[in-house]
Amino acid sequence: MRFDLHVHTRFSACSRLALSAILENARSLGLDGVCLTDHDTMDMARKVREGIQDDGLCVLIGMEYTTPEGDILLYGPFENLAPGLSAPEVLEAAEALGGLAVAAHPFRARQPAWPDLLDHPLLRAVEVENGRNSPVENAAAKAFAGRHGKCCLGGSDAHDLSELGRVTVLVETAVCGRADLVAALLAGRCRLGGSAPGRKRV
């Protein structure tokens, strides 16, 4: 299944991307699933039915959690996660809750991740391809993940429709809910998938 794992809706103040635009265009772009990862909120869960939609698209709710040490993408049961945690605290919560925490765009020049995040033993995965990063920033993330044996993930970081599906991940097992996705990613049943095949048609 081809997923865009990093998508912002209008629940993120910086995003212009409406939920309706995602639902109407994701399948035609060639996406099988999207993770809606708004900044510090999972409130989109009140607006959309998670799981497989009528057209076959799998819609899941995640979150991009802001910490002083760097942004962290969260997949799993994080609705009740307290605000204002440090990166180590978020990683410990992810482990305790059975979710997955991913260092988001960790080598972005204007907001690099700190060693407290990158060197933490509970960091399992790194976003090595981000649709808004430069090639140099993505290459640095990929090199770091390779050196340290981290799972390599990616996402568009879409804030408008023209960015949706710019970076995807191919998940090798069927995904119907958050638990399925987390299990597949933790097991390494995934690989970077490049751009969605229909993205240039939007």
Automatic annotation (TrEMBL):
SMART domains: POLIIIAc. Pfam families: PHP (PF02811), PHP_C (PF13263). One of its GO terms (molecular function) is 5'-3' DNA exonuclease activity. Gene3D superfamilies: Metal-dependent hydrolases. Residues 3-69 form the Polymerase/histidinol phosphatase N-terminal domain. This is Putative metal-dependent phosphoesterase, PHP family. SUPFAM superfamilies: PHP domain-like.
